[in-house]
Specification:
Helix content is about 60%, strand content about 5%. By secondary structure, it is mainly α. It folds into two domains: about 60 residues, no CATH class; about 60 residues, no CATH class.
Amino acid sequence: TYDEIFKVIVSKASTGGKPKEVINYKLAIDHGLMIMRQKGFMSTNMLVEIQNVIEPNKGGIRKLPGTVIINDRTNEVVHTPPQNETEIRDLMHNLELFINQNEDYDPLIQMALIHFQFESIHP
């Protein structure tokens, strides 16, 4: 709730959970906007830097295989992202090219595609 988020902000508490996650997402968006304004482009390293704001101890390009996304109710594997670091880097490079192209896509559609692709590659 807004109250929980406000309490974390005001007390500067280092609590975890959903309120902290919401705050980290806001900080990550602000950081990403700052990068784009300063640099005028986005790179894989910058995307990893933004991810580190959201998940401070989990960031970086995944180097070990074994990551899967599981349906909590059925325990069924619903997505197996790329497992090989080289493949992840290649796909991230392709995403980087898409982000930085100067096509005339609707910004909201482009943002949705970028988010989907990032989460598909590197959840």
